[in-house]
Amino acid sequence: MKRSRRLKFAKPLVWLVFASLGSACAWADETARIGGYPYQVHGFASLGYINTSGNNFYGDSEDGSFDYYEVGLNGIIQFNPRFSASGQLLAREAGETDDGDVRVDYAYLDYQFITMEAARAGARLGRVRNPLGFYNESRDVLFTRPSIMLPQSVYLEGTGVRELLFSSDGIQLYSDWDHDQHHTSLKLNIAKSTEVSDTTRDNFTGGGSFASNFSVENLTLRDPLYLQLLHEREGGRLRLAASFLTARLDAVFGFGGMSFPTGIDAEIVVLSGQFNEAKWTLTSEYSLTTSKFDFAGTGGENRSDGAYLQGEYRFSPELSGLLRYDVAYSDRNHRGNSDSRDTTIGFGWQFRPSWILMGEFHNIDGTAGIPRIDNPGMALEPRTRLLALMLGYRF
Amino acid sequence: MALIFTAMPVHGAQSVEVITNPQTPSTTLSQASLRAIFAMRIRQWPDGSPVKVFVLPDKDTSHEAFCKEILRIYPYVLRDTWDRMVYTGAGQAPTLARTPEELLLNVARTPGSIGYIEKGKVNETVKTLEIR
């Protein structure tokens, strides 16, 4: 299952050249029109380098790895102030956890049926991004996240769950209100059930790094529903959000020639808060996951949770530093022996408006966020040190 | 459409003016509505015509003054709002004018346009908006 590495560098470089060409029409000329309708095209590309000790993270990172990039290209066309269509293609490679294949990240029609000066409401139909916490909706765009790796406690980097959170095929109902100095928005995603990709399934199962006669088939995400309420005070100086996700994950476990249907009913609640000041930003989010599982006639319940506290300091508009403490518990009833902790220190340097260089060091105790699939056939080490650098471009 | 907000008046000496195309129907805007327009949430004027937002580069002193004095939002918070919109497909980014002169010219000739400019550079080709 190890893929060829010959083209590892070629792909992102091609995309970078392509993105540079795109910058010729950067920030979309105000006269750009298709069939008389204004449109915009934007894109991004970022290439990462990861070096770890302890465990691999996104590729053979113990030897230093460039197996980490993300590229995207999006477009939006505005038919009239109420009606638009938009879509984004995305390719992401992250060691063995993501394969670099181009996928449709989102593609939807957006109609606003209420367009008042102080309030709006509408519906988006198609493949829509899922709101969860502050960063999930645009998590693959380096410019929109605070660090190269998002905190594990809420964003589940490195595990199979990550991909399930991206987007939904269905409908998003949304509304937002302006009131004095404040702004409130509500989003509800109702999605159809989908079979989970092989890549995601392999992330879940460790890609065969467990017993060879064990298999997981027909992994299906059923009836996902996302809800997010976001309240921003005084022009975003204080931002508060509550996000909720409920879904069922069904699968058939095969073991020694026998098969067992199994399912997990999962609920995730994320509470988010952020202070934005001129020089600094303070962010904290808490996530609680409740999983009720049934397996071959038996059942049980697990509750996992976690939180992080993150400070960002802007030395100048271009240069910022980050400190974060992140802790996740895979069983909140047994916090003492189920915890993973990640202390992160990092920087972001936006040396041109369209370019950013980010770097960070993680000291990770615990294995909750370590991609098992990048460490085949090995028992995971309890401690990982991770250095990541990432160069990002956007237009 | 009535302006339903009694937003706080903007105090103090301002170094920038909010300008629109002369044909734009509005002559006054609440601060909340102005912020919603520049956050790319309001896409049409009260008469239904499309809003066209022009901005200067993030580091331009007039942009910083506009954000601080009139919008009362940190420039990086506004930039984050645009980025989230652009990379989730929820809306268009504002159109960047590289210089105040380019911005003035674009607002003067683009129906439905809105922007801002240093006070001394306002001329008769555009209309200034009162922000309440």
Q: What keywords describe this structure?
A:
heterodimer, A: 395 residues, mainly beta, 16-stranded antiparallel barrel, 4 helices, 7% helix, 61% strand, B: 132 residues, alpha/beta, six-stranded mixed beta sheet, 18% strand, disordered N terminus
Describe this structure as you would to a colleague.
The complex is a heterodimer of chains A (395) and B (132). By secondary structure, chain A is mainly beta. Helices cover 7% and strands 61% of the residues of chain A. Chain A has a 16-stranded antiparallel β-barrel with strand order 2-3-4-5-6-7-8-10-11-12-13-14-15-16-17-18. In chain A, a hairpin with a 2-residue loop joins strand 7 (167-179) and strand 8. Chain A is globular. Residues 1-7 of chain A have low confidence and may be disordered. Chain B is globular. Chain B has helices at 31-38, 61-71, 75-86, 100-109; strands spanning 16-20, 28-29, 52-55, 95-96, 113-118, 127-131. The interface between A and B is large, with 51 and 47 residues.
What's the short version?
With 395 residues, chain A is mainly beta. Chain A has helices at 10-22, 152-155, 161-164, 198-205, and strands at residues 33-34, 37-53, 65-80, 83-94, 98-115, 119-129, 167-179, 182-191, 194-195, 214-233, 238-255, 258-276, 280-295, 298-314, 319-329, 339-352, 355-365, 383-394. In chain A, a hairpin with a 2-residue loop joins strand 3 and strand 4 (83-94).
Roughly what percent helix of chain A?
Answer: under 10%
Strand order of the largest sheet of chain B: 2-6-1-5-3-4
Secondary structural class of chain B = alpha/beta
Give the overall pLDDT of chain A as a whole number.
87
Gross morphology of chain B is globular
Give the strand line-up of the largest sheet of chain A: 2-3-4-5-6-7-8-10-11-12-13-14-15-16-17-18
Radius of gyration of chain A: 21 Å
Distance between termini of chain A? 35 Å
Q: What is the string of SSEs of chain A from the N terminus onward?
A: HEEEEEEHHEEEHEEEEEEEEE
Per DSSP, the total helix count of chain A is: 4
Straight-line distance between termini of chain B:
16 Å
- Give the mean pLDDT of chain B: 89
The fraction of residues in strands of chain A falls at over 45%
What is the gyration radius of chain B calculated from CA atoms?
Answer: 14 Å
**Most strands sheet of chain A:** 16 strands, antiparallel, barrel
Q: Low-confidence segments of chain A, ≥5 residues, pLDDT <50?
A: 1-7
